[in-house]
Amino acid sequence: MTLVLLYLVVLVLVGIVLFAVGSVLFGRGEVLPPLPQGTTATVLPASGVTGADVDAVKFTQTLRGYKTGEVDWVLDRLGREIDSLRGELDAVRAAHGVEDASLGDAQGAHALPPEYARDDT
């Protein structure tokens, strides 16, 4: 029994020595500083957001999903971009005297294309 205990102690000591040598030789590598509080690695361009930009958005995962602050930021940013684009579109339509077809149409902009429309005849 003493021999087994001696082998176990020697094995633990060898493990400690190997770990110490590996730590000295390889170190911990380059340590990156943490992001400042209140910032995120989630990015979107300042204007002209495209579908590819939205597809490239990555959120930091937390224990219960994604960081709500990052998701809220992206949604707010996309909302402002959509509002800006709709404002520009309205200005162009007004400048050219084009009436918004979806306002006068009873079905509105959410109507299905004709190829998907249901034929009840």
From TrEMBL:
Name listed for the protein in its UniProt record = Cell division protein DivIVA
Listed A to Z, the keywords are: Membrane, Transmembrane, Transmembrane helix
Q: Which NCBIfam families match?
A: DivI1A_domain
Looking at the UniProt entry, the stretches that span the membrane are 6-26
